[in-house]
Design brief:
By secondary structure, this protein is mainly alpha-helical. The chain has two domains: about 140 residues, no CATH class; about 325 residues, Neurolysin, domain 3 (Orthogonal Bundle), CATH 1.10.1370. It contains 21 helices and three strands. It is globular and about 70 Å long. The mean pLDDT is about 95.
Length: about 500
């Protein structure tokens, strides 16, 4: 490997890490009056990243590269793909996007606080225009969304994705209806409050049990839970705490902990190279969704952790049996908020966002009409009437960042997670007993060996196929839901 090429790869990973750190700080500790300054700082760093990536000398180094071994071949392939896309985007557009993202985040926060979409719409309009421009610069076959989707899920296209999401919608709707026909579980938390600091302490206990290395990362609080940081030895997680919604912090932490374990699990030999990253956000989301739902909502998990949870909240949970708590944890009901949605209805939230994004990118939906369109889709897909933008169009942070094309990766992550769990249980027949004993190391170890350490050596579907014997399919996911909820609801 040309030493100049390797050094440049490492420099770019360092700059990317600084962007991640500045963005994490922007969501956690940044003073409000520093928002404009942070927008300029991020624009500068991302501008430098772009300039160093498209430097003509990098092209010469790549042309002269003679990679040896699987790692170097993959490293050059991934880096070349990133550079080829970057060459098509003017530096001025990169900086404009960075500034628009910071302004969009600030406008979203204000609009969300006031439940007023009109305060966010101009910023969203600007971001949408820039993303369209970026998609056109990258090039596409008439579907701008494909160009943006490539940045999150390489190789995925609307032509393949739409049938996948349509099939999910068709299979999930009757399952939701069957569950709704059964008597709903009683509400355990209604009228009760749970001390946020006690919640916080329990989330740290969960992270420790999962094997998250607190000396190589940390957890903080934010409006919208996320995972960031600078690299495998500096992984930043956030969660959020509500006194009346105690499970929100639990599952936000487990979800982000799944992301964090992936980030901490990359092969040390790939540090500061293009291989120290997930090959797609769908695969990244498979890790968070597997931990949050398949492990974190299982009977075995709570057989071990419920007594500990009860002790922390004895006044609220005294006398509540495990079976009742499990039904609450796995309550299925149509709801407004995606991040609080159960695993059966969750993908319907993704379908809603995906369809709106497609219309926005195609020019079939004007940003000024987005909130109304959201409300209409919520009624059509979930049978709910939105009362204010906070529980509607303003609930997610993604569009404040201009991240059009990201939402479908959550659905793909759900599908991948179920396939990986099927393979994991086949390889480790005693894993359910281990989880019930509070030993989560076998789960982490299998995922580390079959997913984490591979980084970007292969594309996401290849990683899943090597681990499970099959590529993208909804069969494992639908089967998992049917078996689990038949037992819980007697359907």
């Amino acid at each position: 490997m040309n030493p100049h090429l390797l050094t440049r790869m490492q420099e770019l990973r360092d700059l990317s890490g600084l962007v991640g750190l500045a963005s994490w700080d922007q969501e956690t500790y940044l003073p409000r009056k520093a928002e404009a300054l942070r927008a300029s700082q991020l624009a500068t760093i991302q501008g430098l990243y772009h300039e160093r990536l498209v430097d003509p000398r990098v092209g010469d180094w790549l042309d002269a590269a003679r990679p040896e071994g699987r790692d170097e071949v993959a490293m050059v392939r991934v880096f070349r793909h990133e550079r080829e896309r970057a060459l098509k985007v003017p530096g001025a557009l990169v900086k404009a996007l960075a500034e628009a993202q910071s302004k969009g985040l600030s406008a979203w926060r204000e609009a969300r606080a006031h439940r007023d979409y009109a305060r966010f719409e101009p910023a969203l309009r600007a971001l949408l225009a820039l993303r369209r421009e970026q998609a056109d610069a990258w090039g596409h076959g008439g579907e701008r969304y494909d160009a943006l989707l490539e940045g999150f899920e390489p190789g995925m296209r609307v032509a393949r994705l739409s049938p996948v999401l349509t099939a999910l919608r068709q299979k999930l709707t009757p399952l939701v209806q069957a569950i709704e026909a059964r008597a709903p579980p009683r509400r355990l938390f209604e009228g009760k409050t749970f001390d946020p600091e006690a919640q916080w302490a329990f989330t740290l206990e969960l992270l420790d049990a999962m094997g998250f290395d607190s000396e190589a990362g940390r957890q903080d609080r934010s409006t919208h839970p996320f995972t960031g940081g600078t690299g495998p030895t500096d992984v930043r997680l956030t969660t959020r705490l509500f006194p009346e919604l105690p499970l929100s912090s639990v599952f936000s932490t487990i979800h982000e902990g799944g992301h964090g374990l992936y980030e901490q699990g990359f092969d040390a030999a790939h540090a500061r190279t293009p291989l120290a990253q997930a090959p797609s956000m769908g695969l990244h989301e498979s890790q968070s969704r597997l931990w949050e739902n398949i492990v974190g909502r299982s009977r075995g998990f709570w057989q071990h952790f419920y007594p500990r949870y009860q002790r922390r909240f004895s006044a609220q949970l005294d006398g509540v049996p495990l079976d009742d708590f499990l039904r609450e944890v796995n309550r299925v009901e149509r709801s407004f908020i995606r991040v609080e949605a159960d695993e059966v209805t969750y993908n319907l939230h993704i379908v809603l966002r995906y369809e709106l994004e497609l219309r926005l990118l195609r020019g079939a939906l004007d940003p000024k009409d987005l909130s109304d369109a959201w409300n209409e889709q919520t009624k059509a897909l979930l049978g709910l009437t939105v009362s204010h933008p906070g529980e509607g169009v303003l609930q997610d942070i993604h569009w404040a960042w201009g991240e059009f094309g990201y939402f479908p990766t959550y659905a793909l992550g759900n599908l991948y997670s179920a396939s990986l769990w099927r393979a994991l249980r086949a390889a480790l027949p005693d894993v359910d007993d281990a989880v019930a004993a509070g030993d989560l190391a076998p789960v982490r170890g299998w995922l580390r060996a079959h997913v984490h350490r591979h980084g970007f050596l292969d594309d996401a579907e290849t990683v899943v196929r090597n681990a499970t014997g099959a590529g993208l399919t909804d069969e494992d996911f639908i089967s998992y839901l049917q078996v689990k909820y038949a037992a819980l609801y007697g359907i």
